[in-house]
Amino acid sequence: MDLLVTYDxxxxxxxxxRRLRRVAKLCExxxxxxxxxxxxxxxxDKSLLELLDQLNATIDADTxxxxxxxxxxxxxxxxxxxxxxxxxxxxxxxxx
Amino acid sequence: MDLLVTYDxxxxxxxxxRRLRRVAKLCExxxxxxxxxxxxxxxxDKSLLELLDQLNATIDADTxxxxxxxxxxxxxxxxxxxxxxxxxxxxxxxxx
Lengths: 96, 96
Known about the structure:
2 copies of one chain form a homodimer. Chain A is of the alpha+beta class and about 100 residues long.
């Protein structure tokens, strides 16, 4: 499934800034960064559960905010972009 | 249609910070803020075109980055949230 993960992590403390880096690193392990706090992720059920577990173990549930949207097929290709935003190649083209 | 608008605006200059505030204000006119740089927007074709025109006229296309994802029906209700993130009531329940 195709997911969009967006987050706000409270960075008013050194601990918060550490969490922010950790959240970004976790998301980098699962998908492509398209903005400062936005990742496009292709995942199956197992890797989504793994990511959710990792994120839950990382964030401060009283201050941080993570949203995970399930997108329709090809939404990554159909995203409308303005400015320097670009579509990302999540799947290599097949050469037969 | 249901849209998710995410943005990164270069805030290294006072002019950039002005653009950031303007982008947020434009999005506020069309939907609900769910994170610092993420808005959930319900729009018809006309208001989407209007928003795109306004955003294009506001951003610096060489530094800023806006992405607009079209979401499936009810995606705003089905969003998976961690921490303090909450689902947002875009449409009032009908009382018959």
